[in-house]
Amino acid sequence: MKKTSFIFIVLSLLALIAGAIFGALAGIQYVKPDFLKEVIAFNKMRPFHVSTVLGWIILCSTGGIYYYITEVLKLNLFSKKLAGVHLVLFILCAIAIYVSFATGKMGGREYFAYAPIISLPILFGWILFGINYFKTVVKQIKGWPVYLWMWGTGIAFMIYHLGETNFWMIPYFRENFIKDFTIQWKSYGSLAGCWNMLVYGTAIFLMSRIKNDDNIGKGKKAFFFYFLGLFNLMLGWAHHTYIVPTQPWVRFLSYGVSMTEWIILISIIIDWKKSLSAEKKKLNNMSYKFLMATDFWVFFNLIVALLISIPYINLFTHGTHITVAHSMGTTIGINTTILLASVFYIVNLEDKVQLNKHIKILKLGYWVFNISLGVFLTCLLLGGVEKSVWMYFTDKPSSFGQMQDKIQPYMYVFLTAGFGLLIGILIVASPMLNILVRKYKHST
Amino acid sequence: MIALVAMFAIYNVIVYTQGTSNSTPKMSEKALKGEQLYQENNCTACHQFYGLGGYLGPDLTNIISNKYKGPTYVNAFLNSGIKSMPQFNFTEEEKDALVQFLTEVDQTGYYPIKDAEKEANGWVRIKYKNQ
Asked: Which CA distances in Å does A395 have to A73, A193, A321, A417, B105?
């Protein structure tokens, strides 16, 4: 089973690198509109980037979950064959998605720009994963720690909401633009909630292992936050659509639900104070180090997310780069740091000696990654403020092009920081890829 | 657990029906054809409706009713290949369908809403068309 988990993780790291390269190229197109326009125009480059980095998040969390339940929790997987089929299916889907973009046969729904038919095998892959996961865990573990609930919830809801993203093919939805558009964003908001369940579950699992404290995944508080997350996954999506003319209660409910996340913020601050004397010796552990970075980015992102979920503020930030700062901040700052911590944890278990040989360069990569991300997000926030001022606070209307020229300087720094991120990722991911590939050859 | 699933199911059904109900008429065949073109060419990579979409191009929600722009302007823009916008080769019929799609989207509401009513609890009352 190790082999299957390793392939998932190796592919995910390759996707991370490729996704960052697509991102950097798309970034060049932001400042130089003619760059590669004839070969891969931005309307193709963007889906290449988005689908590949989503692939990173999905494949890495999936590979991690397979590895943790079989190698760390030592459960007997219900069916190795099913896991193999799941893997092959996802690889075939990835190929099909790239072919769909390259040939321009696109479905063109944001984030799901590939030919819609590919959704079917993807959905099927998730169902297989679900069967395997629940059949494995339900029988062998009584009194699930919270991370097992989170993984299970993530998989189950993923199946539902992936289906929901395709409702547009049903005339009832498609014929009514507002309905279709709203349900599209409902499904996207909830899908992000689903992969967050997979990724945050991984974070809690890692914390309980690194600190060697099983209670981290148990107890009232852990489950309170689980339910809070679930509640937000199910009902919080409408904060993406505050200005779309649907019935007000849908959006108002979302406003209320989104505001419950202040509890998370306050709890983090309290916990932080408590752990100020944190054991420094763990700082040599790359997995721990990346989780500390997660902590920082969670703090930053939660503040941004909470503020822009207040409709009054959202009115001005919506549709600007501030929203991008939020989505990049969470997918890179939170999801990616947790998943890198997860890969480090696994590589450390597999070959500590090799990993330690690279520790200096890895630390360098860590700082390049985090500092670049800080600059990257700052540029987006500043660019967003400019756009908002252009949209809402200028009397004489200037053209979109003039506004874009105005934020161009930020975009140059943004692009440079994007390349910084790519370099940071390369530095961190390459040694791990190397070790994992070598281990793969020797594992069963 | 069963109660939670049941509640979620009911919530979803209400959102799919009443929660997203609105008084805009059904999209015409021609507009649906236009929407399909919009998707197949992934215009959303650059353009937005209601502020949702890509950031490289302008929001298109109210471009048809914009007194400085409108259908003729849009029609002329589509195959222009200006700036980062790809060089499309739409036929007249396809351009018509795209314009029709944008026209029917325009009828669904307003964006950006410059004079939304703001309330003390942070809530914002948006403006509706067709009411």
From this structure: 62, 39, 21, 33, 26
**pLDDT tens track for B62-92:** 999 999 999 999 999 999 988 889 989 999 9
Q: Is the pLDDT of residue A284 over 70?
A: no
Residue of B35, B56, B85 to mutate, testing the A interface (most A Cβ within 10 Å of its Cβ): B56
Mean pLDDT in chain A? 93
In angstroms and rounded to an integer, the radius of gyration of the C-alpha atoms of chain A is: 22
Cβ burial A47-73 (10 Å sphere, 16+ → b, else e): bbbbbbbbbbbbbbbbbbbbbbbbbee
- In the prediction, which pLDDT does A402 show? 92
What is the residue extent of each domain of chain B?
28-126
What's the CATH architecture for B28-126?
Answer: Orthogonal Bundle (1.10)
Please give the residue of chain B at the shortest CA–CA distance from A40.
Answer: B86
Contacts of A392 in chain B (CB under 8 A): 112, 114
Q: Do A247 and B18 touch (CB under 8 A)?
A: yes
Spans of all domains in chain A: 1-140, 143-276, 303-444
ipTM above 0.85, yes or no: yes
How many pairs of residues across A and B have Cβ atoms under 8 Å apart?
156
Share of chain A above pLDDT 90, in %: 81
Residue A422 corresponds to which tokens in the numbers above?
A: 């790519």
Instruction: Give pLDDT, residue B131.
Output: 62
Q: Is B41 left (phi over 0), alpha (psi -120 to 50) or beta?
A: alpha
